[in-house]
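Troubleshooting log. The previous run stalled partway through. Resubmitting the same two chains, unchanged.
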Amino acid sequence: MTDETHRYFKCDPATYTQLAAAVDQSRGYPRGLGTRAVTLRGLPPFGELELANDNSGRGLIAIDKWRFTPSDDELLAPAIGAGLIEELTLSEYQNLKTEIMP
Amino acid sequence: MGLINQSGLFSGAGLVDQAGLYNEAGLYVPGSFSPLSLNPLLAYEAESSMLAAGGGAAAQDDGIATLDDLTANSIDATQTTANHQPIAYDAANGGPFARFDGSDDRMSFTLADPITNGTVFFATKKGSYAANLNLAAGTHDFSGNKISDNYFFSNDLVALYLFDYELSETQIAERKSYFVTKGAVEDYGAQNSFAYAWRRCTSLTSFPLINTSSGNDFKFAWLDCTSLTSFPLIDISLGRNFQLTWRNCTSLEDFPAGFFDNWNPSSIFNGVFNQTWDGCSSLTSQSVENILTSIDTSGIWATNDGTSSGTTLNDPVIDIDYDVSTGSLSAATTTAITSLKGKDWEININGTLQ
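Second attempt completed without errors. Output:
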């Protein structure tokens, strides 16, 4: 996992949940319901994210760069502008995690 | 269920030469061997198991929602969150394989019954191995290299098999040979970094003798492998970093003699042995002797290049915990400690600087 392969975010819970729902809508998730192979969502629920170790109550997520579309960045921009989502460098992300990263 | 059981085409030793699977030169002849023989409990193969959402075969770049179990047990592996799904690669792009990103990609399967002294077999693009394990009933995560809830080692999975008994060396070799014909790499001999490779494989009870001759980074490699009781004499001659490598291997009793005898790295990381054997609460005093006498035998100094003229490491401590009930430190250990201190090493045993 490097700065070349992933983007890193620290997310306000409510904002993350709204954005995750928008991601699901844009990708057509859930997909495959009723079959053996199901994709329920694009991003994990906020409750599955590791919380930042700064007591901010915000969650941390790494997302593969190839998953992003231009419209995703448009979606993100207002939340980043409002400080509800912070995009991090890999080292910033690592420093906010409890578990030591590669 | 497997197509061929142990009492069928296979001899008691698991040899298959009478079935014509190997030619006179000892080379594998494709097409005559089924890896589904020997009744695996589950079997995933990139060639035929990768399903995208909806159940169709996963195409290039598709997220893999399900790995179809090729046995009749139908223990499919699933991942319902796209951000955690491995990606399918097809034959036109070097596959078929499932690419796990080494960050958070993983899948999971659920066992109805526990496995005792079973075998897990991984065939991957970095190497293939089989190891013994115990697995509880319930759900287990895996990534491209290991059954674990740690996903920090990227790998391209060609096949994963699980057996509820111990495979013989011959049976393992057959499967390695077979999956090499499917694009897997037979051993890890070309791999430089083993950092995090088997971290938190808590189910593994043994680890195989694999080819690590090119490895230079072993940090965190077997951290928290809490069921390992012994460790093989792998080649770590080029290793530059052993930080936390066996930390919290709480069942590890026996560490082999001579492990570092041929240690000859081109450079050494600061803190090369930082917490390396911390939390190894079952390690014997003989193992401590094995470790320290071997590092001493290597002649390597606690410097950036391992020579007496190099720059002293910022953290030259060798951290070891052991079970004092197995005996006090031997005279050979004491002699090694004195010698190592003369090479600028510091030795911390059970939290006490020697």
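Takeaways: The two ends of chain A are 8 Å apart (CA to CA). The interface with chain B takes residues 1, 5-6, 27, 29, 31-32, 35-44, 61-64, 67, 100-102 of chain A (CB under 8 Å).
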